[in-house]
Target: Putative GTPase/MT1543
Amino acid sequence: MSRAVESDLVERLLDGEHRALARAITKIESQSPGYRDIVSELHAHTGGASVVGITGSPGAGKSTLVDKLAKHYRDQGETVGVIAVDPSSPYTGGAVLGDRIRMASNVGDMDVFFRSMSARGQLGGLSTATADAVKALDAFGKDRIIIETVGAGQNEVDVVKTADTVVVLVQPGSGDDVQMLKAGILEIGDLFVVNKADMEGASRTVAELQEMIHLRDDPRANLDTGHHGAEAFDDAGHGGGHGGHADTGDTGDTETDDALDEPLVWTPQVLETVATTGEGIDELVETLDDHRDYLDASGELAEKARKRAGEEIRQLLRSDVNRLLEAELDRRGGVEEFADAVVEKETDPYAVAEDVLEPFRECLDDRDDRDD
Model:
């Protein structure tokens, strides 16, 4: 694809052409030649969307919840993009569940763009293309972007690198799942949702999650996990609602300099929903909006963007350097030849690494000398 054709695709995407959006995401996912140029051109047009990650164990009802969330946003007149990261096919690398019908409430609605993507076997459940697909949806002008992860195990912490708010779904009575949350996902959850709350054991699961959050957070953390709505932040961005608000240390008296200096703190909420009927969706949306307000007021939204950009740069550099090193290894006969030499005690792994990296070091040293 020529640069002119890439620019034309980007222009049509920015003009709101859904076919161009779909084609751009296809090129991003398959990493077709020129896909980086597409993402680079889209970058300046991003930053307007609110991005939510939905994760949790299989069977928790993530797809149904995402469907109801999308419908709620559409009823409010907002546009929605959904990226569902599915397990990878061991044969094609494509998404195993890519053809399933998941957005039953939004069938035929052109303002809900749904895309199923392959996890490509990565830990964390997110393919490296997911973040770039989010950029495409953001540049397209989607108001809300939802990432639904594969839910295969407890290694889905990568979602936090792409989403502004992370929602963890848990099934009632799933004591083992709640215990496994301690392994990692507990640390990234901004909201915890006990879905299928009409089932037996929902209250106990809520209590277990509340206790885990309490033990995780500062001892001063507010354990009131009742409803908190838009009143959680006043015009100055200070917490004033119920549980889960940003605690500024305000005692109700006139604000002092000390109170203003107190950092905002978000206490994760535990909510209950019945996604099949839509019960609890309104409160979930309110809480998502509250968390977005907190991110804005605390400055954490900008900090997340900086960290995300830094991690993306590192990831791209690691990927590109790995390709260069693989090419250098192939040029020298392949890693198998080096491995044979190591086994025969003719050399050792450290010496091999030094030898392969030497031309790269020389190149960098030469550049430094020229700069001086």
